[in-house]
Amino acid sequence: MKPSSAARWSLAALVVVIALIVAIWPRDDASAPDSFAEYRDRVGTTAPADAPDVDLGPERAAAGLADCPRPAADAAAPTGPLAGLQVTCLADGAPLDLGRALAGRPTVLNLWAHWCEPCAEELPYLQQYAERAGDAVTVLTVHEDPREGSALARLADYGVRLPGVQDGGKSVAAALGAPAVLPVSVLLDPSGEVAAVLAQPFRSVDEIADAVRTRLGVTT
C-alpha cells in the first residue's frame, strides 16, 4: 500500500529538519580558536569582569602582593607611551598613574592572564629575578583579563608576590604596541621609553638578567 500524500509530506519535512540540525550543529574544529592569539582575545573580551561592588579584600589579603612602585625621588616627569595611563593596583585596588609610578628606574613589565599556562611557568622566575635585582630594576605584572579576583587567586596559588596592576581593557598593551600573545615582557628605560618588546616566556632567571643587561644596560 502506498503512503498517503500527508505521510509523504511529513517524511519530507522530517528530512529537512534533520538536515538543518546537521548543518548548524557546532563542530569542535570550527569552534576551536585557530591560534593562541585568538584564544587570548576571545577569553579576554568575553569573560565577564568582576562586578564593581565586589569586595576583593579577602583575595588581596590572601595574595599578599607587594605595594605598587612609586617614582624615584629624582625622577623627571615621564615622557614615554605610558605617561598619564591609569590602571588599578592589585595590592590595594587604588588607581595608579602607571607612567609616573615607573618613572626614574629601568622596568620589566610582564603582561599575563590568569588562564595563561606559559605565564604560570614564567612568573616564579620573575619573582626570583626581582629578589635578585633589588632596587636596580622594577618588575611589575600587568593582568590583562577582566577578572581581577582570578588574578589574585592565581598569584596566591603560584606564591608570586610581585607588585602588579589590573588592566582588563588591555590599555597597557595598546599603548606599548605589544602583540596579541601572552606572556609578553616589555623593557622600559628610566625615562619610560620602550627598549624592547619580548613576546616569549622566560625560562630562567639568568635569561631575564641577560635580556635586562643587553637591552637596558643594567647588570643584575
UniProtKB/TrEMBL annotation:
The keyword Disulfide bond applies. Keywords: Cytochrome c-type biogenesis, Disulfide bond, Redox-active center, Signal-anchor, Transmembrane. Its main location: other. Pfam families: Redoxin. Residues 66-217 form the Thioredoxin domain. InterPro entries: Redoxin, Thioredoxin-like_sf, Thioredoxin_CS, Thioredoxin_domain, Thioredoxin_ResA/DsbE_sf. It is found in: Cell envelope. The keyword Nucleotide-binding does not apply. This is TlpA family protein disulfide reductase. The lineage of its organism: Bacteria, Bacillati, Actinomycetota, Actinomycetes, Mycobacteriales.
